[in-house]
Design goal:
Layout (H helix, E strand, L loop, with lengths): L15 H11 L9 H8 L10 H6 L11 H10 L2 E4 L2 E4 L1 E6 L2 E6 L13 H14 L7 E5 L5 H9 L4 E6 L2 H13 L5 E5 L10 E6 L22 H13 E16 L4 H12 L3 E8 L15 E12 L4
Parallel strand pairs: 5-6, 5-8, 6-7, 8-9
Antiparallel strand pairs: 1-2, 3-4, 9-11, 10-11
Amino acid sequence: MTLLHDWQTAPTEDHPLVRLGRLLQDAGYAFTTTSPPSHRRVNAREHNATANDLRGVFGWNRPFDGSVVSPDMLQLMDRAGILLTEGRLYRSALRAATLGAQLYFHSAYPTRAVDSVFFGPDTYRYEQVIDTALAAGLPVQRAVDIGSGAGPGAIKVAAACPEAEVWAVDVNPKALALTALNAQLARLDNVQVAHSDVLKGVDGQFDLIVANPPFMVDDDQRTYCHGGGALGEGLSHAIVDSAIARLAPGGRLVLYTCVAIIDGADPFRQQAGARLLAAGIHYEYREIDPDVFGGELGDDIHRDTDRIAAIALVATRPAI
């Protein structure tokens, strides 16, 4: 993907991937990206061996004959460096998902590479949590999406707050390039990208901090998957601590992640909540789904885990 290496150069409307995205939008393309297990099982069906439409090519990421897409699309894919050959067939090196009115390019299936940019069911839940927080009417002049990935959090905030300065930060250069690309597809000019470990690469305070951090302990330490800490909670704690230090008066942290529940207790809530209250920051905490990623419970590190829950933490610093 040679055209995605330089995240510091903002893509224009002439960029082959922007033009490809526009063609998909004009064609009414829509696809909800599923979890990897669901993706694998659907594609394993005999009649799904190859793609026969745009959803098969860019959503299910199946091999396809060149006649399935238009000549213009095929040429743009080739120019962008995402047209892979598999014998007599092709495959796209990027997938495309839709969420609301927006289209997002993200990494091909399966996401095995260390720098894969993930998009899936948690992304849709994350956007719902942000929607709820924005509905409260918080004035936002400066915002940041920590670990932006393909950019859905930053793009959601930038679209809802067009006058705000919105930063998208990530440690993965490929994620930053895709965020910039997807922001251009959304026709937004108030999204800025920066290479940053949590908030170390950006200065100042923020009225809104949003984050959807990884929450697993991944042996390969893939950036989208590995959360660090004993049970994958390390990065979530780091984000809470950064919010304590960098939220402006009246500012809000919106964190969506998944946590391990052990013997009926939620250690992340107990520890993060205590630090927030000690800093004078009020918070609301709720379980969105009580039992997700049950397959992880077979790992030895989760030998004492009852379940893994999807949660939303919304913390607000009182205004002066």
